[in-house]
Amino acid sequence: MGVAIRKTKAELGLADLYQGARRYLPGGEEITAVRAAAFDRFNVVGLPHRRVEAWRYTDLRTQMKEAKRLASLPDDAAKAKAREARDLFAGAGFRKLVIVDGAFVPELSDLAGLEPGLTIQPMADALAADKPLLSQRLGAIVPDDDPALALNTALAANGVVILVAPGTALSRPIHVAFVTTNWVATSMFTRSLVNIGAGASATIVESHQGPDGSEYQVNTAMQLIVGDEARIDHIKVVSEGSSALHIGSLLANIGARATFNQLGFVAGGSLVRNQLFVRLAGEGTVADIRGGALLSGTQHADTTLSIEHAAENGQSRETFKAVVGDTARAVFQGKITVAPGAQKTDAKMMSRALLLSDEAEADSKPELEIFADDVQCGHGTTTGAIDDELLFYLMARGIPPAEAKALLIQAFIGEIIEGAANEAVRDALTGAMLGWLGRRE
Amino acid sequence: MTALLEIKGLHAEIAGGRKIIQGLDLTVNKGEIHAIMGPNGAGKSTLSYVLAGKPGYEITAGEVYLNGEDLLAMSADERAAKGVFLAFQYPLEIPGVATLTFLRAAFNAQRKARGEEELSSPDLIKRVREIAKTLNIDADMLKRPLNVGFSGGEKKRNETLQMALLQPSLCVLDETDSGLDIDALKVVANGVNALRSAERGMIVITHYQRLLDYIVPDIVHVFAAGRIVRTGGADLARELEATGYAQYQSEAA
Question: The domain containing residue A435 runs over which residues?
């Protein structure tokens, strides 16, 4: 009887948030029902803790002390701050959509001259319209029995809906910038939906940032629905403020003979949980999923990936790398499931951690669950410090130790950055990496 | 005149206590090439590491001066900037660092340390390409990650390229001939010989006399059990080839 566990202050706070907000959260009857069901699912289990296998290394029940009040709609001052916020992708020519304190802000977003086949809408409007499609999809792509995701479904107030019509090749990447402006800690629940029609292609970049020192809380989810023979490049950069809690969920359903390139990059936040639920639903799909994390201080970043090969002839590569300094902790949990009948699946997962101090920690838990008999699946994990022999080689050529270490760190994380097909994205991530290295010196 | 390198009464051991270098005296003047020959396990590679500043060795006695400056007080990168270059017996592979990136970082770090102006990328690339041509290194190799997937010969040519680019005052070549076929050996030796100058000294460490047919030394030392037991001219190397090291090993022991 799990119900016997006493609710924590944060759990009670989250219940208050939901009770207080449910009357005005966007959505008609159907969506309201989806929200209520999701909240109930959360409420039964509460915040995940270390005895919940999927959250084994990230005990949210202990670490989340309270629920911050919901952010209010951004005023002019907040919008002005968002306008001036650092933009990693500035000058890249991306179409920028700006979410300020959890709310989509059209006047900060580039909505002019949308390419034929591209539709962009604030999630709040889409929810308010209560279209059956959306309510079905709000929870239905993957099982949302994950408590953090259930909370998101219950409380998501805004975000963005991006629809790319079948056959549309979007040449201009879309950058969805989530900016927290308020120094007074609040919580934000955002939900976005990206639907890439059959044969279409698009690059979607997500960035998350906010003020250092503020204990704001972000619970954000992105749903990607990718049609047959479509291609999606999705990049997510977490450079949240130094005290922020960031829980992000990616829910992806990929069609047949499609290409799915996903890259996650964490270089900020105090406690970050990035969870990816990926389903390769159609046959012959190729997925390349990479993640990089640069952690220092007391940061804790958890990437938890669950990828299901549901159809035959799929290929996936999962590559995760973390650089961990000081007393920071990196967590990688990766699970590859091969469904019965998903023959000829070719999946390889690798996670590596580079520890920069004796107190740094990396936890890695790879899992394979295979129900087909003609597959190639493998995984590997390494954890180690900077190689002294390599360091000496560089120093023997005159490169000072700090620079030599930085070069080795760059080389280590470079493999992740190289995964981005778009040059401006690679440049931005390299810039983020150099910024991180610079702050360490 | 101050010697380029002066080693006096050097004793060194591996951290943990095994004594490797036991009372070494050696003076290398500018313009000289010294060969250090000796049996395996004599401490030849340790000497190269101690000169280059590799951590993990403890100097228990003695002094080492480079142009009159206390070399042992400097870190490896400081020594390199002062002109010490160790051509590694086994050059390391560094995935993710392009050879050219590495060369640029090393070259400019040394310039910076000496208070000289850094060289712009186009100028540096031009210079690297010119040297590469003389060593039969193609431009594609410069873009590849440092030494990754390089053959033994390519690695040694790459070491020679670095040496030619960095223009050190003291070159220490540790078993440069190991892993090389005769053609590769000639290319590398030509590269090294091109660096012979009145301003530069070299220590060529080798087990075999073969390398010294191509890089002809001025002075040959026999190194056994951690110190120099005999010194002679270039003909000493040929004599050793005939007699072997056995007599010196027993002498030292």
Answer: 387-441
Confidence of residue A132 (pLDDT cuts 50, 70, 90): low
Between chains, do B106 and A412 touch, taking CB under 8 Å as contact? no
Catalogue all structural domains in chain B, each as residue range(s) with its CATH number: 5-252 (3.40.50.300)
Closest to A396 (Cβ–Cβ): which among B76, B97, B107?
B76
- Within A149-281, strands assigned E span 160-164, 174-179, 187-196, 201-209, 217-226, 231-239, 245-254, 259-266, 271-280
Answer yes or no: are the C-beta atoms of A181 and A100 closer than 8 Å. yes
Q: Distance between CA B181 and CA B153 in Å, rounded?
A: 8
B55/A388 CB distance under 8 A:
yes
Beta carbon pairs, A and B, within 8 Å: 79
Decide if A398 touches B, using CB distance below 8 A: yes
Element (H, E) at B77: helix B76-81
Distance to chain B for A292, nearest Cα, Å: 15
Asked if B114 reaches chain A (Cβ–Cβ under 8 Å), the answer is no
Question: At which residue do the structure tokens 């792509």 appear?
Answer: A141
What's the rounded Cα separation, in Å, for the pair B100 and A312? 43
User: Tell me, what's the pLDDT at A1?
Assistant: 44
User: Contact at 8 Å (CB) between A431 and A267?
Assistant: no
- Is A378 among the domain residues? no
Give the pLDDT confidence of B119-168 residue by residue, as tens digits. Answer: 999 999 999 999 999 998 988 899 999 999 999 999 999 999 999 999 99
The yes/no answer to whether this complex scores an ipTM above 0.85 is yes
The answer to whether A404 contacts chain B (CB < 8 Å) is: yes
pLDDT at A140: 55
Q: Is residue A366 part of a domain?
A: no
Instruction: Give pTM, 2 decimals.
Output: 0.90
Asked whether residue A263 falls in the same domain as residue A411, the answer is no
Last residue of a domain, one of A237, A255, A282: A282
pLDDT cut 90: percent of chain A above it: 90
Greater pLDDT, B252 or B166:
B166
Residue B91 forms contact with A (CB below 8 Å): yes
